[in-house]
Amino acid sequence: MERNLSLNLHVLTARLDRAADRILRAEHGISYSRFLALTLVGELGASTQRTLADYLGVTEPSVSRMTGVLAADGLLDVQPDPAGGNRRRLSLTDEGKRRVASIRQEFEDRLAAVVAESGVPYAEYAEHTARLLTTFDRLEREAGK
Amino acid sequence: MERNLSLNLHVLTARLDRAADRILRAEHGISYSRFLALTLVGELGASTQRTLADYLGVTEPSVSRMTGVLAADGLLDVQPDPAGGNRRRLSLTDEGKRRVASIRQEFEDRLAAVVAESGVPYAEYAEHTARLLTTFDRLEREAGK
DNA sequence: GGCGCTAACTTAGCAAGCTAACTTAGCCAG
DNA sequence: CTGGCTAAGTTAGCTTGCTAAGTTAGCGCC
């Protein structure tokens, strides 16, 4: 097996995630996973654990544990949904908002710098990646998952 | 935050890995991680744990544990390197070879089908991904990490 | 020939993903 | 109005990443 696409994607992403995690822990005292969760709640409006799991691409138990930790750390507010159902309403605490705001732009700039350095056209690569994700989601849904 | 590149890469890869893992477990009784390790030993000639860790993009302790499990399962042969040093010589057992051979082509075909379905040009995307990986590796090495 | 150096590997413990199975809440059909 | 269904969330236990720290083997220099 030469180093094919699936392996390269796997390794590239693993390294990006690990680097992101190292930087965030060292400079901001938070893991990459938790940062992503807070960001999605704050800026994409992930308002229930189910929705957040979909946005992150992980399962409900994973989110369940993480929201517990984030709530205990005082970054996330988790409340029963007043509209009823068994849902939780997620929102950032003031401390959570402060954290996310202080990190986001600087962090994204660092990734863009790597892409620029590589000579890969950012917009095109981003669009291809987005398209693969959309297609893969659709195929999985059609397959009944 | 819109769904930017780093998040899309993270989620796309997580889903590909999970799908690969599900398929391999259900149809072949092996995890994706272990399949990758066996494949790299068998076909790229990863002959020590250090080399295998580099190919996989993970750390030595992770490989150390995995080679132990694979050896216990009778798929991998782990021996002290007769050439001396503290190295281990890795090689597939007959059972390990049989396993890898029966899986590889069918599995790669499935991924190629997803890419084709999405309309993303495979060769170009693969090349961009490879280039990003190379650049990122270089930047990390230069940074002293 | 022993001291320190480096490289490869192991051990221990933590983080965060997963699946399986369970609980809780609302909804609807008889 | 109850018994079953579905959706959301939780709990338990496994896998496989990680870092930090320790071990083992050869190598070089005095």
What proportion of the residues of chain A form beta strands (DSSP E)? Answer: 5-15%
Tally of alpha and pi helices of chain A: 6
List the quaternary state of the chains. Answer: homodimer
Report the helical percentage of chain A. over 70%
GO molecular function, one term (chains A, B): DNA-binding transcription factor activity
Protein name (chains A, B): MarR family transcriptional regulator
GO biological process, one term (chains A, B): response to stress
Domain HTH marR-type (chains A, B): 2-141
Can you describe what's shown?
Chains A, B: GO terms for molecular function: DNA-binding transcription factor activity. Chains A, B: It comes from Microbispora hainanensis. Chains A, B: This is MarR family transcriptional regulator. Two copies of one chain form a homodimer. Chain A is mainly alpha-helical and 145 residues long. The first copy, chain A, has a single domain (8-118), classed as Winged helix-like DNA-binding domain superfamily/Winged helix DNA-binding domain (Arc Repressor Mutant, subunit A), CATH 1.10.10. In chain A, 71% of the residues lie in helices and 7% in strands. Chain A has six helices and two strands. The first copy, chain A, has helices at residues 5-28, 32-43, 49-56, 60-72, 94-118, 122-142; strands spanning 76-80, 88-92. A two-stranded antiparallel ribbon of chain A has the order 1-2. In chain A, α3 (49-56) crosses α4. Chain A is globular. The model of chain A has no long low-confidence stretch (mean pLDDT 84). The interface between A and B is large, with 53 and 53 residues. Chain A binds a DNA duplex (30 and 30 nucleotides) through α1 and α4.
